[in-house]
Amino acid sequence: MGPDETHGSTALLTDHYELTMLASSLSDGTASRPCVFEVFARRLPDGRRYGVVAGTNRLLDAIGDFRFTDREITQLASTAVVDDATLDWLAEYRFRGDIDGYAEGELYFPGSPILTVRATFAEGVVLETLALSVLNHDSAIASAAARMSSAAHGRPIIEMGGRRTHEYAAVAAARAAYLAGFATTSNLEAGRRYGIPTGGTVAHAFMLLHDTEEDAFRAQVAKMGADTTLLVDTYDITQGIETAVRVAGPELGAIRIDSGDVGVLARKAREQLDSLGARDTRIVVSGDLDEHAIAALRAEPADAYGVGTSLVTGSGAPTAGMVYKLVEVDGRPVAKRSENKASRGGQKAALRRHKPTGTALEEVVYPCAAPPEPGEYDRLLHLPLMRGGEPVENLPTLDDARALLRRRLVSLPWEGLKLSRGEPAIPTVFP
Amino acid sequence: MGPDETHGSTALLTDHYELTMLASSLSDGTASRPCVFEVFARRLPDGRRYGVVAGTNRLLDAIGDFRFTDREITQLASTAVVDDATLDWLAEYRFRGDIDGYAEGELYFPGSPILTVRATFAEGVVLETLALSVLNHDSAIASAAARMSSAAHGRPIIEMGGRRTHEYAAVAAARAAYLAGFATTSNLEAGRRYGIPTGGTVAHAFMLLHDTEEDAFRAQVAKMGADTTLLVDTYDITQGIETAVRVAGPELGAIRIDSGDVGVLARKAREQLDSLGARDTRIVVSGDLDEHAIAALRAEPADAYGVGTSLVTGSGAPTAGMVYKLVEVDGRPVAKRSENKASRGGQKAALRRHKPTGTALEEVVYPCAAPPEPGEYDRLLHLPLMRGGEPVENLPTLDDARALLRRRLVSLPWEGLKLSRGEPAIPTVFP
């Protein structure tokens, strides 16, 4: 659970206005009003049929590290962000409220109350930016990754997008991809922090470093054994495969093709490998793959996919668009005037209704003050996550989240897994 | 220059295969071959007319912190990523090579050699992932931000997108936005790390916390003075403005409108403010603005813009698509076979040709072995950035980069600043 960034404190990963709101509310006494804040997405990214909750455990860790040490206080004082009374309050800050929410790996839909924070205004408002940063990023990546995993239909996907996003976003993206079913990541820090299996062999640079392709293959096989993956598309692919099998023998683990029309090339490669007796040599394809490209490769003899850019950029939806809204003050529902935004005041929870077969029917988002009678096939969606500022015991792990999402995707109506643009897989109802 | 993340080491922000390539090359002796690696983008994001280099100074810092301490070595050993000989080599690693490149804030075009790394294969290859993560992220954000700054036509833009991206990407995004001309950021950590001015007042939560809008305005004005920005769109905007001026007086600093058709609302608000005698009260608009929305507001009385999601997601282009390619080994140009990718071997540099008026004409990317005769209006684009692994003295600062970009945008042909999709503003030529 150890923090790594910012010498242990996450407190300045925060918008200036959270602290000026705090200062004003401390002055007029409203800071101590009991409040409920809710995280939800008004809509799914354009045409998406479901979202995947991710980042919850990262957020709980980050809340534990949300402390204003001397360094933070000095910075705020020197830039006059807030007055001394507010600085004194911040120096003592730790979150002591309660948090409920959807499990990591759970599906969400428009209006799903993904996270509910109960605390004084002061304690809750300062967490807004951090909560949204973590959940918006990780959920966007996991939501895209789940579509890729579905498209891959059981074939493994290797996450290799770290170079296309911020160096620390890369680590979180690898985690979200693993949650959503990816097999491995290239990112070594994700391996260290989260125990995700890492993998990789060589890039074209290694091929070009050597005087000949054969020299490079020999060096790699000498070091990593014949069960490695040889990159065969640096010069001529047919020649590359011939050389690869000659150097490694028919027990060659895999070849990788990273350019060109990888579907056509995979088919030709399979034929050539078979003709060379390398029937068990696998074919890994990579190079600008997204969920649509993966789906298009289903009939081709590609055994594994490497995915980079499209994963870390959320495949067109790089943020989940979640908001953190004050919904209750002193037990009274509150909401901004709203013409076309769905703003509903009051503390809410949710359950998902299912057919007897287990297929999801609808997301019911209800006021906690008036819960519906749960039916036989309904599933309550809120878990306790923090009590009195402490994470609850036995929080679901990353592996739990991965397993949960796998089960939940099976519960979607079949149209819900279509990659084409459409409506949310199930409607959200507000009784 | 102090690192904050990962207890000071950036070494595991790296793809697994960089280290397996290293291991194989150490085994066969090719690791020590002198090499040149080049960072460039094959193309600009779809329809963009220029790119902005950003992240260089962040990268130089991160390279200084690229060390394999006990923690990294233990992790790599326990997961058997590489053998003991390679671990011994890594434990001693520090970069000792030379780096040249474009200044931060410089424009770039397809094929521009943004960064050139000269080192042994071993020393250079391990930096690939980190270099690309930093440059791809920061340049994507700065490139989008520059378009927004152009569209704003001198009106200030407030960066407020941190909640829509990974919590540390948010800090780098605020830096890139400032480089590209934004006035302030909401991100407090960006204020601490980079000295960027931060700002903010209140969110709707502060309004809803109070029993009435007037109570909220009074609390805010009592704390922050009349020169603050009051958020007037929580309930009814006309009523909100009336109350705001009544509470703060005509010396009210600004109002903010965060929803609805902000152009129409700004016009009506201006009339109302003027009629109330608040002629100097400014109007800040926010809410899903991008460069196109900003441009559309040019004729409206909006005095400042708040921009969030579109900034941190690169306004449709969240990554710059730069690659880090081995272009020279032992003095010989090398390049992958390529059908439609522009892969040119050999160490290169660049100059930009201009008309006598100062308008840019073309980007000339030439082999260092055969430099062209620079003309009177040509500008050489490579600066020394590192020598022997140490940053050169007097590196341009963030403020230098901000000033440079402002000058460079003026040098573009006028079509280059159009927001519509088009070709790169100037062609890249390879003599």
Explained architecture:
- 2 copies of one chain form a homodimer.
- The first copy, chain A, has 15 helices and 19 strands.
- The longest helix of chain A has 25 residues.
- Chains A and B meet through helix 1, helix 3, helix 6, helix 7 and helix 8 of A and helix 1, helix 3, helix 6, helix 7 and helix 8 of B.
- Chains A, B: Pathway: Cofactor biosynthesis; NAD(+) biosynthesis; nicotinate D-ribonucleotide from nicotinate: step 1/1.
- Chains A, B: Keywords: Glycosyltransferase, Ligase, Phosphoprotein, Pyridine nucleotide biosynthesis, Transferase.
| CATH H-level superfamily title of the largest domain in chain A | nicotinate phosphoribosyltransferase
Quaternary status of these chains? homodimer
For the record, the CATH architecture of the largest domain in chain A stands as Alpha-Beta Barrel
Low-confidence stretches of chain A: 1-6
Q: Distance N terminus to C terminus of chain A?
A: 39 Å
> Biggest interface and which pair forms it?
A-B, 102 and 102 residues
Structural class of chain A: alpha/beta
What gross morphology of chain A would you assign?
A: globular
Write down the Rg of chain A. 25 Å
Within the largest sheet of chain A, what's the order of strands?
A: 13-12-1-5-3-17-18
Number of helices of chain A: 15
Largest sheet of chain A: 7 strands, antiparallel
For this structure, the CATH topology of the largest domain in chain A is: nicotinate phosphoribosyltransferase
Q: Estimate nothing, just give the exact number of structural domains of chain A.
A: 2
- Tell me the name of the CATH class of the largest domain in chain A: Alpha Beta
Strand content of chain A: 15-25%
EC number (chains A, B): 6.3.4.21
Function (chains A, B): Catalyzes the first step in the biosynthesis of NAD from nicotinic acid, the ATP-dependent synthesis of beta-nicotinate D-ribonucleotide from nicotinate and 5-phospho-D-ribose 1-phosphate.
Family (chains A, B): Belongs to the NAPRTase family.
Domain Nicotinate phosphoribosyltransferase N-terminal (chains A, B): 12-136
